[in-house]
Amino acid sequence: MEPSMDVNSVTISVEGMTCISCVRTIEQQIGKANGVHHIKVSLEEKNATIIFDPKLQTPKTLQEAIDDMGFDALLHNASPLPVLTNTVFLTVTAPLTLPWDHIQSTLLKTKGVTGVKISPQQRTAVVTIIPSLVSASHIVELVPDLSLDVGSQEKKSVACDEHSTPQAGEVMLKMKVEGMTCHSCTSTIEGKVGKLQGVQRIKVSLDNQEAIIVYQPHLITAEEIKKQIEAVGFPAFIKKQPKYLKLGTIDVERLKNTPVKSPEGSQQKSPSYPSDSTATFIIEGMHCKSCVSNIESALSTLQYVSSIVVSLENRSAIIKYNASSVTPEMLRKAIEAVSPRQYRVSIAKEVENTSSSPSSSSLQKMPSNIVSQPLTQETVININGMTCNSCVQSIEGVISKKPGVKSIRVSLANSTGTVEYDPLLTSPETLREAIEDMGFDAILPDTNEPLVVIAQPSLETPLLPSTNEPDSVMTPVHSKCYIQVSGMTCASCVANIERNLRREEGIYSVLVALMAGKAEVRYNPAVIQPPMIAEFIRELGFGAMVMENADEGDGILELVVRGMTCASCVHKIESTLTKHKGIFYCSVALATNKAHIKYDPEIIGPRDIIHTIESLGFEASLVKKDRSASHLDHKREIKQWKRSFLVSLFFCIPVMGLMIYMMVVDHHLATFHHNQTMSNEEMIHSSMFLERQILPGLSIMNLLSLLLCLPVQFCGGWYFYIQAYKALKHKTANMDVLIVLATTIAFAYSLVILLVAMYERAGVNPITFFDTPPMLFVFIALGRWLEHIAKGKTSEALAKLISLQATEATIVTLNSENLLLSEEQVDVELVQRGDIIKVVPGGKFPVDGRVIEGHSMVDESLITGEAMPVAKKPGSTVIAGSINQNGSLLIRATHVGADTTLSQIVKLVEEAQTSKAPIQQFADQLSGYFVPFIVLISIVTLLVWIIIGFQNFEIVETYFPGYNRSISRTETIIRFAFQASITVLCIACPCSLGLATPTAVMVGTGVGAQNGILIKGGEPLEMAHKVKVVVFDKTGTITHGTPVVNQVKVLVESNRIPRNKILAIVGTAESNSEHPLGAAVTKYCKQELDTETLGTCTDFQVVPGCGISCKVTNIEGLLHKSNLKIEENNIKNASLVQIDAVNEQSSTSSSMIIDAHLSNAVDTQQYKVLIGNREWMIRNGLVISSEVDSSMIEHERRGRTAVLVTIDDELCGLIAIADTVKPEAELAVHILKSMGLEVVLMTGDNSKTARSIASQVGITKVFAEVLPSHKVAKVKQLQEEGKRVAMVGDGINDSPALAMANVGIAIGTGTDVAIEAADVVLIRNDLLDVVASIDLSRKTVKRIRINFVFALIYNLIGIPIAAGVFLPIGLVLQPWMGSAAMAASSVSVVLSSLFLKLYRKPTYDNYELGARRHTGQRSPSEISVHVGIDDASRNSPRLGLLDRIVNYSRASINSLLSDKRSLNSVVTSEPDKHSLLVGDFREDDDTTL
Q1: Contact yes or no for 782/631 (Cβ under 8 A)
Q2: Which range, of 67-76, 154-163, 387-396, 920-929, averages the lowest pLDDT?
Q3: Residues 1278/1285, Cβ–Cβ less than 8 Å
Q4: What is the dihedral of CA 62, 66, 72, 78, to 10 degrees?
Q5: Cβ neighbours of residue 38 under 8 Å, at least 6 residues apart?
Q6: Which of 964, 993, 1388, 1434 is deepest in the core (most CB within 10 A)?
Q7: Alpha carbons 454 and 451: distance in angstroms, whole number
């Protein structure tokens, strides 16, 4: 055979495939095309690989052919790759029975044959074949009269089945091969490696990017094979280390010279030596059949071993060997050397000269008995997609011919196939794949242990006594592990992981949860370990990490058990339950009547456990879980701050009254201070009621102040003390520390000075600061109380989310023929994995599951946020909490309890709300420096005044208001110094700092509420001004969220069927439909015809996902009415232009006559109507012209749904329906951009629709097909880039992202859950309020900063005066001045905050005026669309130089035309965007170069 290259291969991306039926359609249609040799379509990878003749087809024509079928075909690389072909020379060996023409046509019809040249004279045929599709031996089988020309024949690689078992002396090696793009690559590798000496078979899989090689380890090593693959240009990695033959003491050189046994040769054909001996070995450490085949294959390669039989049950091996070449001891070491080197071997007995020994003859009989009878296993495969007996026959016909298959029985009723096969020649997985290759869905049951059938019973007596029971030896140990999987975006990823993992050896079952990002794997620990499983998942392109706390997957059940009387009842329940398989732990408490049970949900469920307890004669029921999110409702905090505020307020009012009174009196005294003698002063003091002394040194004023201050200091301020203690413990100083410090020192100083005055029996009352604590605590406690009320709203969101969960489920029992036996209503917590649940129309799905019977439309807007219902059929997955619409469904539960998607969303919202740390207040940051600074100033003041006092006592004497000559000098100085330092602490008390934020926030939120913007507390208000990115949800936020008819295109002449008539018929037909699209059509028709009533609709049928069919009558009256209206309008118009009345009369009367005739004639006309998509029309035998098809494609490209209408089997109309953009959306986006913000669109909808909407509103960055959990991840990703994110949304699916974002903004018309999860709620459904909320935030923060300036200026001026810096120039700060200044600063801050009341929200007209010149739609090429969670996951080709130049020049032009548009939309490092730009040149009619 001579290799040549005259065939090409190309891979085309295909969008729009939904099921295996689409795959088959494409393969059948394109496969028939002239010049196409082979086509393979992959639904998972969304592509088609085609091998074609470049003389007859080009990649462009193939792409157009797929496009014409209604799919979107994208050609990433227009240059095809060459495919290796071989030439086979055939010669005639016997007289020909068939004519040459017939031979030529037979060969040309064969798949993989590209050309045939025949020479009748020389009696030869030269056939060109594609070796990856057909082999030379297959060609010979087709034409028995011809045989291969031996002279030209070469050794070639033989494709082996992926899972065939290597024969004795061979080792199977799995390698991951990267960089393969087409079948040409696979055939190159197979051709190169297959020729190597020692390589028996090789199979390269393009889909799995792996090679499976069976080779002889004594002739070639795995490393050499790897190097050969890399030499061809493909990086290769060994996936499974081969089981090498390690033979310690035996001479390896002798092995190398060993002639290789033919793979067909069995033990009987092995050479028999004259001096044969038999030895029996006992082998410890074997676990399963894999160990048996390992030992047998390793030892049977040895030249001097004629036969070996290993028994797993008896833990023995019987070996027949050449005694002159090897000893039993060497064989023992050889067995121990077999990988994984864990066997412990001992020699039981050996028998020399087997020919003469009678005992050995019986021993010999036994192995030959077992070996000669092949082992048979039976497996059951679930087959979906069979429709009739023809399918059954085709499966049975194809599979029965497969090597190793003994028999197959396929049941159409049960959708199963039972296969008896030889495990040495094939495996269940190989059979499953063979059935799938025929176009059916084949699934192996998770716990599919093959049934072993031995053709002839083995000897009655076992060779060796077995210590273990056979069951315990045979059953492999099942272990379970959980793996955290990241990077999954949709159900296809889940299916990909589950399918690939099940193929791996040692894995029994896999269950992947998309929302939780978790895979539950059951495996055999003797064969595989969790890190290896994680590695397999990583090889598939996902992130994977083994979860350490594997107990997480165990079910925990809390039950209330009634009817127990004593300890023996407890023991009875516990002992019965712990005997059950799948129950790990059980504890029953007699006192509380409760049982705590830990179980494996795969083996047993809560219902089984309850039934077991009830069968013992007790009553058992679930402990009802508290479904409220009480840990998030802040009730305790709200209560404590409210109490703190009320206590402080109650005592503060009288203190403030006393303070004002004293301020007036002190002012009055101050005017007399220098003019009066001391005795006069004492006289005035004593004459005032409040200054009268009850005891010497204790006035009524001071006593009242002390009594009012005590409860505030220690009851109202208790929480401040706790917070301050915690802050100091962590070595930080916050607002609480400053408040506590100031109030405590003021209180302690006042109390000490009062006690000293009483002790000294002073005549003049000391000046105290008992008024400071109550005032301070009131303001701060009020702020904290309001803050926690806002935070407390969060729990309502979770309560709403949890209420979406169904409370009960209808569990059904089916018999073997899938007929309903019984139904039972149970609590949703009692649903077990694997239960079959019935969901009626209008019902909620109680758990996540897979549909096993029925068809319906399901409203999943709860999860995906998209309004359109989703068609469900057997095999589709359903989500808990979504609503079934029109058909009954039977589903099998896959995820129950806390694993359901809805529970995961609840968990996401909880985590986002609890993990969001409150913004660190500016005041806290400031007081971090302010507190130590003030304390330092206060101490410095104290020390300086003590020094000055001792140096110059006259200053103290002059300026100390409480100076009394009866007190000693030292005491006077210390008292004066203390008073100055306390005045510093009090005047610097952060009252105004404390008020700066809360007052502005209170006014700001009030003003927001008046303008229709509800802001929950200060945190979002402060955060909104820092926002750098605004993320919009699409449905219901940027768009209205309800479909509307955009266009009706009439496809027939108006004289045959008028437009009004089509609308009347379509409106009537769709009036019975519950689908949102149907409702939109009916609404549109009613508006156009200006009527509320429509015709009559009969025989109405809905096919979910396709369309409707029905019969329509009684529309003539409707048309008659609309014609009358047209006539009336005509008359009015005619009278306006003064046409004479005679004409009017005749025209009206004639129209009346026509109408009368019409109504009589066509009274009972009936119309047969079909409305639906392409598939519906094709299914009903209608041909869609290329014009109609191209116009549908154009609508779909713009994100619309195109629906076709046929009346009486004639295609009459095309209706385009779409969700329309809100009128103010474009303007809002423009203004946000002009404010310097980045705007992003994020949606669960497909990329086409998302791109179309984005281009309409001017957004250039889009994330499409994003799940709720991935919306959270996207927000996190943006936050990790250092950006503050505002998320604008309306649906339940947005709530986790709203909670995670720095500022969550919910549209008021959205769901309650979204509103509760958000920080800002826009009451009006107006996107300009998003702009207003950010604008208001900026204004508020600006006002807070002004407040801080007021507070700081007051402190900066007040503190030096209080410290006595200006004493030498006579500027003294008396205590009443301190109080007044403190009050003044607080008042100034409050007044400053009240200025926010003047804020006015700009109107639509104001915005529009400013923005009119700049707004404009973006061309789709400027929009970068990222699909799913991982942008890198989209494989896009590298652009050629010309394409790049074109894109850059185009982007430059756009950037000049658009406002502030940067070149960020085309970055070289993101090939993703380039591929989209290239795509757009092809797609957009309006784009010109």
Answers
A1: no
A2: 154-163
A3: yes
A4: -10
A5: 31, 50, 51, 111, 112, 130, 133, 183
A6: 993
A7: 10
CA-CA-CA-CA dihedral for 201, 205, 209, 210, to nearest 10: -20
Tokens 């404010």 sit on residue: 1235
Closest CA to 491 of 890, 835, 43, 909: 43
What letter would DSSP give residue 112? Answer: T
pLDDT tens digits for 773-786? 787 777 767 766 76
3-state secondary structure of 100: helix
User: Residue 1481 is which amino acid?
Assistant: F
pLDDT tier at 964 (50, 70, 90 boundaries)? Answer: low
Which segments of 916-1044 does DSSP mark as H helices, in order? 922-951, 953-959, 969-987, 991-1010, 1018-1024
pLDDT at 1030 over 90: yes
Phi, psi of 77 (to 5 degrees): -130, 110
Specify the amino acid at residue 441: D
Using CA atoms, how far residue 54 sits from 61, 83, 350, 1203, 1234, in Å, is: 11, 11, 69, 38, 53
Q: Is the pLDDT of residue 1174 over 80?
A: yes
Q: Which residues are catalytic?
A: 1033
d(CA 1211, CA 943): 100
Average the pLDDT over 101-117 and give the result.
82
Q: Write down the pLDDT at residue 369.
A: 37
- How many residues comprise the chain? 1489
Contact between 816 and 894 (Cβ < 8 Å): no
The pLDDT value given to residue 1157: 42
Which of 510-519, 1080-1089, 1336-1345 reaches the highest mean pLDDT? 1080-1089
468 burial level (CB within 10 Å; 0-12, 13-18, 19+): exposed
* Chain centroid to CA 1301: 17
Decide which of 136 and 492 is more confident: 136
| Distance from C-alpha of 842 to C-alpha of 889, rounded to nearest angstrom | 11
Q: For residue 1194, give the H/E element and its range.
A: helix 1186-1197
User: Rounded distance, CA 1140 to CA 1115, Å?
Assistant: 34
Q: Is 1182 left (phi over 0), alpha (psi -120 to 50) or beta?
A: beta
Contacts 24+ apart (CB under 8 A), 603-607: 604/580, 605/555, 605/830, 605/831, 605/832, 605/833, 605/835, 606/555, 606/557, 606/829, 606/830, 606/832, 607/826, 607/830, 607/832
- Is residue 998 a contact partner of residue 786, using CB atoms and an 8 Å limit? yes
> CA 995, 999, 1004 angle in degrees (round to 5)?
150
Question: Token pair 């739609």 is at which residue?
Answer: 1417
Between the alpha carbon of residue 1144 and those of residues 180, 309, 1132, 1137, the distances in Å are: 80, 110, 10, 12
What confidence score (pLDDT) does residue 1459 get?
Answer: 38
Residue corresponding to tokens 């003797």: 526
DSSP strand pairing (47-52 vs 1424-1427): unpaired
Residue 432 has pLDDT above 70, yes or no: yes
Angle 740-742-748 from CA coordinates, rounded to 5°: 90
326 CB contacts (<8 Å, ≥6 apart)?
A: 250, 302, 304, 305
- C-alpha of 269 from chain center: 58
Residues 767, 772, 778: CA angle, nearest 5 degrees = 155
Distance CA 291, CA 269 (A): 24
Instruction: Give the CA dihedral 1037, 1041, 1047, 1050, nearest 10 degrees.
Output: 160
The two tokens of residue 1053 are: 């002449």
Task: Report yes or no: 515 and 537 within 8 Å, Cβ to Cβ.
Answer: no
The whole model's pTM is what? 0.44
Tokens of 1051: 């496809």
